[in-house]
Sequence to fold (597 residues):
Amino acid sequence: MCGIVGYVGKENALTKIINGLEALEYRGYDSAGIAYLWNGKVEIIKKEGRIETLKKEIDFSLSPTISIGHTRWATHGKPIERNAHPHHCGKFTIVHNGIIENYLELKKELTGKGYQMISDTDTEVACALLDAIYQEEKDVLKTIQRASEKLKGSYALGIICEDTPDTLYATRKSSPLIVATVEDDKFIASDVPAILQYTNQYYLLDDEDIAVLKEDSLTFYQAGEQISKERLVFEGNLESAQKEGYPHFMLKEIYEQPNVIEKTIQFYFDGTKESLFQRLPDLSKYETIHIVACGSAYHTGLVAKTWIEEIAEIPVLCEIASEYRYQKVFYTPTTLVIVISQSGETADTLACLRKANQEGMDTLAIVNVVGSSIAREAKEVLYIKAGYEIAVATTKAYSAQIAVLSLLTLKLALIHNKISEKSFERFKRQLSSLPDAMRTVLKNPKYKEIAEKIYEREDIFYLGRKMDYAIGMEGALKLKEISYINCVAYAAGELKHGTISLVTEKTPVIGVITDPFIKEKTISNLKETAARGAYVIVVSNEKIEEAEECIEIPNFHPLLQPLLTILPLQLLAYEIAKKRGCDIDKPRNLAKSVTVE
Ligand code: F6R
Fold:
């Protein structure tokens, strides 16, 4: 959700900013821009489209030593040059990630004072606000502090002021921002990859912290007082942010899944029940569970809902975060609220976590990004061990979330004596063969063959029941986000209540069938579509004769099965998008980290 980079130091700031922006392009890529101070004047270059286009406009033979840059995911105003960042007003030039909610009100006030806005953005308003306050304060630090009091919503800001040409400022509220220092080089960035080629150490700004960066100093302030901050170390390395020979990050990440799952599970479970009791939080008091998340993370919650209800026999409410945050929610003292987020910064999920925290609920976060807002604000956090996920469409983080939820379910079932020794032993035994089984499923050449047959279709349906429906939802989301094919997942029994009218000759219908208890029901529903001409493909843990194409996967314990079932759906989506020539790692209109509502 927009990438910000800022640099001040001794070297060529233009190169530093562009390198940083390229590493952050997954956060937004509809336009990009850079501002630098040269001969006491601010110069701004902005372009619609990718950073590659911006790069062509930059004269790298100049070597300014202070600069800010931005790669945008549009919120206010179309992705055109005029709305691209940086924005400039009076003495100030800024880059922004987030949404200023009261920008219309502020705009009115500032235009009343004579400011003229040329863009449609909330950012330009924030820039004018800084300039207006500065006219009175004549002190940048105090100006930023006062502006923070007036700005409602979320923001991470990189700021330069013509009156202090050797200083870069940064502040944030509910949008991530890090600061790094490597001798005389000082950086600000939305995320770690932007600085990884220089250092893996960084400071994380807290809400309303202000960082003041100069070539020879770095100072942090909170509420006007100078503060010290802890330096953090990023666990991954630059290699983890590179493609390593794969044509796309998505494919690399799909293939990383067997190792990721092994690592994630081993972190919490060594095969003994004791490890589950020691390494996972105490869950004994909870009588209801709420699971809240967005997108794919929500889909993992739906899988967990089926498991927890059926295996541990505890009722679960699984809700989309943007709904839950505004809903009437019924909590009891024995409710546990679980939030799931790869980035740990998703605005709606964070808001739900805060809502539950405010109600005094116990909250547990399942997160990938260490030190992210959700990880820091939840009462308990369980990290998945997915490593850096770069492709916008999640794959390995989805699976690692499933793995952690599977262990939580196992623990709940053990606490309530709902799982037999036989079933526990089967889980344990199959766990050790899971990574190899996943590798075998990944190697199946069928995905390419099926992609070849269906990639030109404009409608595809996914059918399943219960857990298989939840996995179908993820399969459909994967395919639509990277291939732009309209695809919808349906609870298999629901299609005939209207949507089946869309099924025509050769419409691909993908059935997911792994639950033996409802297998026959889903098969009947698939037959109903076949009778209307559908091309029926099935992903199943047994041979389904009725399907035109059956992708067979190994039959595993229900708490492990989804980790195999999802693989054909991910690869099918990948192969179809590739055939259609889509930009797989950076699908249109999307961004990796959704820090706005
Ligand atoms: C889809 C996808 C999104 C995310 C959603 C939540 O491939 O990646 O649907 O799952 O935006 O993001 P996190 O997990 O970062 O909260």
About this structure: The longest strand covers residues 92-100. The two ends are 11 Å apart (CA to CA).
